[in-house]
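Our platform keeps sequence and structure together, in a single record for each protein. This encoding replaces a full spatial description with a residue-level series of whole-number codes. We quote a single record here, exactly as it is kept in our systems:
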Amino acid sequence: MTETQSNAKNKTQDTVQAESKKTLEENHYIPLLRAEYFVPFIARFKDFENNIYPVLKEAGLPDTVLSSKPEYLSEAALQNYWQSCIVS
């Protein structure tokens, strides 16, 4: 990953985190999305990447997301995950 890509990725993650924090402060809720819609995409990414766990950790998703089948996932964590997939 080049320095420019790394800077763009950090800037995007900082923006997402700032927006999430602002939402939390204004509305006092954590935006959640139904995991059943996203877990298949995460599982599919595993077909292309041997070790997806560093990406999951960086995004803020639990490394057991594929085995535990959570009902909901944090919107911010999913946004971070998609950004990590796009940049890598």
Notes: Strands lie at 32-34, 72-74. The longest helix spans residues 3-27. The chain is about 65% helix and 5% strand. The longest strand covers residues 32-34.
